[in-house]
Amino acid sequence: MDPLSEVLSLLSTQSSAFAGLKAGGDWAIDFPPPDGIKFNAIVEGVCWLIVEGVEQPIRLEAGDCFLLSRGRAFSLRSNLALPGIQSDAIYRHAVNGIACCGTADAFFLIGGRFAFGDETGLLFDELPPVAIVKNGSDQASVLNWALQRIAHELASPSPGNSIVVQHLGHIMLVQILRIYLAQEGNSTPSWLLAISDPRIGAVIQAIHANPAHSWTVENLAKVAGVSRSTLALRFKQKAGIAPLEYVSRWRMQLATRALKANHTTISSIAQKLGYDSDSAFSHAFKRIMKCSPREYREEAQSMK
């Protein structure tokens, strides 16, 4: 399994929601900070996007998408000078998940939201507050197909509607991440940038394939086919952290999933992740997760 698929499969989706918006005439809507990761795609028309903490408004056209990776309030509007109404005022009257504002004849947007558990940091922490995906790339054709299918499912509910929309939403999320990575100018260190680099991506895939291995910078450099110094520099440039720090963080991603399952002993988890003793595992876990494995498990169980 490739690293992106693996990380997405590890994310525990606590909730998800999908909705549409039709608007027309003069309109402006203010949205509260989303709970989780939110993406919207413009099916028809144009609008302005304003995101809390982002200096300039962003003009969006049909086929454009945006992904909000932080819990920040945002606004959508036809005219920047208009005062906004609260989104609850129109979404409470939504029919089949589609809300209407104004004349509802010039603009159509599909939105999705995923609320994940606490494993999302690896995937989303280094993304900008808003990631814009412009229409026009080759991969956008798959995104547009999923977009049209979600629009159809929302407008014409049929048996199995919810599961179809959820899977299409996952397809859209992956495509948005792929297209964002393919755009020029995305050079801020992040996990997504790292896996898109052939050499660093190969290193990450090797770590994921055998997380319990006694990895060193030297043997990871052999996987990449470069010197130790080159790997250390390039990994830091792409991922924002050192190679062995990534090994530790990935092990903790796997550890938290195992601890939540509650059917494996802490000693067994430590051994499966390559730690020689429970104390070594506990020390590594505390350094990254800021609590002991036992405390993490107890907290996870209390949340169920």
Describe this structure in words.
There is one protein chain. With 304 residues, the protein is α+β, with helices and mostly antiparallel strands. The chain folds into 2 domains: 3-182, Regulatory protein AraC (Jelly Rolls); 197-302, Homeodomain-like (Arc Repressor Mutant, subunit A, Orthogonal Bundle). It has helices spanning 3-10, 87-91, 121-124, 140-155, 161-182, 191-196, 198-209, 217-224, 228-239, 243-261, 266-272, 278-289, 293-302, and strands spanning 13-24, 28-31, 37-44, 47-51, 58-60, 65-68, 74-77, 85-86, 98-102, 107-116, 130-133. The strands form 2 sheets. Strands 9-1-10-3-6-11 form a 6-stranded mixed sheet, covered by helices on one side. Helix 4 runs antiparallel to helix 5, helix 10 crosses helix 12 (278-289) and helix 11 crosses helix 12. The radius of gyration is 22 Å and the shape is globular. It starts with a helix and ends with a helix. The model has no long low-confidence stretch (mean pLDDT 86). It holds the Pfam family Cupin_6. Keywords: DNA-binding, Transcription, Transcription regulation. InterPro entries: AraC_lig, AraC_XylS_family_regulators, Homeodomain-like_sf, HTH_AraC, HTH_AraC-typ_CS, Tscrpt_reg_AraC-type_HTH. It comes from Dyella koreensis.
Work out the helicity level: 40-55%
Global geometry: globular
Assembly category: single chain
Strand order of the main beta sheet, please?
A: 9-1-10-3-6-11
- What does the main sheet amount to? 6 strands, mixed
Spans where pLDDT lies below 50 across 5 or more residues: none
The gyration radius over C-alpha positions equals 22 Å
Assigned CATH superfamily of the largest domain:
Regulatory protein AraC
Give the topology string: H per helix, E per strand.
HEEEEEEEEHEEHEHHHHHHHHHH
CATH class of the largest domain: Mainly Beta
Number of domains: 2
The helix/strand class is alpha+beta
- CATH architecture verdict of the largest domain: Sandwich
β content, as a range? 15-25%
Counting DSSP E segments of at least 2 residues, the number of strands comes to 11
- Helix count, DSSP H or I runs of 4 or more residues: 13
Which whole number gives the mean pLDDT? 86
CATH topology of the largest domain, by name, is Jelly Rolls
Please give the alpha-carbon distance between the first and last residues. 29 Å
